[in-house]
Amino acid sequence: MKHTRNFCIIAHIDHGKSTLADRMLEITNTLTARDMENQVLDSMDLEKEKGITIKSHAIQMDYVHNGETYTLNLIDTPGHVDFSYEVSRAIASCEGAILIVDATQGIQAQTISNLYLAIEHDLEIIPVLNKIDVESAMVDVVTDQVVDLLGCKPEEILLASGKTGQGVKEVLDAIVERIPAPTGDPDAPLQALIFDSVFNSFRGIIAYFKVVNGSIKPGDKVKFVSTGKEYVADEIGVLKMKMHPRKEIPCGSVGYIISGIKTAVEVKVGDTITHVGPNACTEAIEGFEEVKPMVFAGMYPVETDQYEELRASLEKFQLNDASLVFEPESSLALGFGFRCGFLGLLHLEIVQERLFREFNMDVITTVPNVSYKVYTTQGECLDVHNPSGLPAATLIDRIEEPYIRAQVISRSDYYGPIMKLCLDKRGVLINQHYLTSDRLELTYEMPLSEIVFDFYDKLKSISKGYASFDYHVVGFKEAKLVKLDILLNGDPADALSTLIHADHAYDFGRKMCEKLKELIPRQQFDIAIQAAVGAKIIARETVKAVRKDVTAKCYGGDISRKRKLLEKQKQGKKRMRQIGTVEVPQSAFMAVLKLD
Question: What is the pLDDT of residue 403?
Answer without folding.
Answer: 85
